[in-house]
Structure formats: C-alpha cells, structure tokens
Amino acid sequence: MSPLRRRLLVYGLSLAVPGAALAWWCWPLLSRSDAPSRGDDGLWMRRHWLHGPAHAPVADLAAALRAHGVRRVYPFLGPMDPEGHPGWRDQGRIRRYDPEVAGTFLREMEAQAPEIAVLPWTGGNLDQDVHLDDEAQRRAFAGHMAALVALGAEGVHLNVEPLPPGEPGYLDLLREVKAAIGPDAILSVAAYPPTTPLHPFEEVHWTLDFTRVVCAVADELVVMAYDTGLPVGWLYEAQVAQWTRELAATLPPGDCEWSMGMPAYEDDVPWHRPDVETLAHGLAGLRAGLPDPWPAGFTGAAIYASWTLDAGEWATWDREWRGREPAGTPVPDLAGP
C-alpha cells in the first residue's frame, strides 16, 4: 500500500458519519441474492509458485482450488523494473523472474488442472515502478507479458497502485499488453471500486465512466472491494452492496467479465480494519447487491489473499458463497519465507 493511499484512507475515516446515516436508512431496502457461486471464482496467491520454492506439490494446489470452486488464480509475479522486466521486490531491488521456473509451474498447472486459468499478477506502484509516460518501459513490459503467455499462462493480471481514473498512459499500457498477448489470452485488471461519499478520493476510486472504458479494453476486471477504512461491519456490507449494484448497472454485457475482490487479510491498519472488512461481511454485501439473475459478464468473487486464509474463512466461503458444506481442504499457500 502506497503512502499516498494510506494518508487518503486515514482521512476518509472522518467522512464515515454522514454516509453511515444514509446507509443505515437504505440498508433495510436491500435484498439478498441466494444464487450460489458458479464455481468460477478467483484467488490472489503468493509469489513462490512462479519464483520458487513452491513448498507444496502443484497437484495438491490444483485439488484444493477445485474443491473450493476457484478457476482463476493470480500468483504474484511482482512489479516491473525500469526496463520493464517483472520480478519481486527484495531489499529495494527487483529480482527478475526466471522464465524456466515460472514455465515449470505453468506447465504443471496445465497438466493438473487445465480448467484453472493462471494469470500472473504484475504491475507495481505508480511512479515508483510503473512510469506510464515511458514508452520504452511499456513496450518492454508488454513483450514480457507475451513471453509469459508463450510459457503457458492463460493471460496476465495487471495491478497499478494508486491509479486515478484517466491517468495518462494507462490505457496505452493496457492496449499494448493486449496487443502483445493476443486475442486468445486474458488481459485481467485489478480495478478500483466506484467513487463514494464515504471516501471521495479519485486516487483510489474510479468513476463509472472510466471503469466502462477500461472494461472495453480489458477482458476481465477484478474490483478491489476493500480498504475502505470503515469502522463497522454493516456499513462495509452496505458499501460493497452499493458498489455491486452500480457496476452491474454500468458494465455493458459482452465488453468484459468482472468479479468482486473480497478481503481475507489480517493487517490492522487505518485503511483496513480486520474485524470489519472480513470475508463474511464482504460476501454478505456482495450477495445483497447482486441482482437476480446475475448480470451478464459477472463471474463471481475473488479472495485477497490465499496466504492469509485459515480453515474458518474457507468454511465461511464454502457455506456463504458456494452454498455447501466446507470442503475441508485449505489451499496450500500459507504465509512463509
């Protein structure tokens, strides 16, 4: 999380009271969707699958993902360096990924679970890693994305933070990456939720008009429906429901697929209260905001993040979102060195 985003989210807490009154009035009017997951959900994952060592057999990973209905995974590849080469940050420098290591994982996943799309997660911090006005960096990065697809990735998942709507060069980056990876590969984007009276800062929210434009360029949007800094669970549920309704009414059918990112991480920081932004509250808000039937293009939910999920949260996922008894098979991606 960037320092700018941290400051904005801290300040946003002061805006919660008037918004809370409005949400309290609207909350009883919300209906709750009982439609279960279609089994096409997503999961952000650790870097070790692509960079090594994985600490668990790929067969175990594939079986656990299948048991929980996860069909899209975003293993962390890491931010781009000044030459556009992605890798993970280590003591202030980018350690470039090894195509041989990444390719081995991608091939093993294809062999074990061909129905699961692997979309390496990359991008970086705006103006620290990602320089959108640097055409050479953008072109080189797009070339590395094409190389990942050639290694066996179904596509790539781009996350740039913070990113105001209309940031010059962002749509150019998306178009260049899409052109490089080709029409059959998936360009997935970590998208920002709409603006809100509770937190009206465009650095960490997108207008609906800009979201529609990104949807026309990308193949998939995964909306980061968390980091609100809200103080109570019902208010967070109301906010997620509002975002879901707005996106369902805004995104044109057929332009892109989209899902809602749900929080399952424990960092106790001003922009995220772990007792408020829980998986249970997030899923309740999502279900409250979803129309029935589901809107065209909506695929489901994506969890942030695999390395923080415990057995209880997986049980919540299975019961509240998938409508079934817990699978009892945690995904083998717990935090570690």
Structural class: alpha/beta
- Our count of helices gives 11
Name the overall outline.
globular
Largest sheet descriptor: 8 strands, parallel, barrel
Q: Note the run of SSEs as H and E.
A: HHEHHEEEHEEHEHEHEHEHEH
Mean pLDDT: 90
Q: Order of strands in the sheet with the most strands?
A: 1-2-6-7-8-9-10-11
CATH class: Alpha Beta
Secondary-structure topology with pairs:
Layout: H1 3-12, H2 16-26, E1 41-45, H3 48-51, H4 58-67, E2 70-79, E3 87-90, E4 93-96, H5 99-112, E5 117-118, E6 121-125, H6 135-151, E7 155-161, H7 170-181, E8 186-191, H8 208-217, E9 220-224, H9 233-250, E10 257-263, H10 279-289, E11 298-304, H11 311-321
Parallel strand pairs: 1-2, 1-11, 2-5, 2-6, 6-7, 7-8, 8-9, 9-10, 10-11
Antiparallel strand pairs: 3-4
Helix pairs in contact: 2-9, 4-5, 6-7, 9-10, 10-11
Explain what the structure shows:
- With 337 residues, this protein is of the alpha/beta class.
- The chain has helices at residues 3-12, 16-26, 48-51, 58-67, 99-112, 135-151, 170-181, 208-217, 233-250, 279-289, 311-321; strands at 41-45, 70-79, 87-90, 93-96, 117-118, 121-125, 155-161, 186-191, 220-224, 257-263, 298-304.
- It has one domain: TIM Barrel.
- Helix 6 (135-151) runs parallel beside helix 7.
- The chain is globular, with a radius of gyration of 19 Å.
- 47% of the residues are buried.
- The model is unreliable at 1-21 (pLDDT under 50).
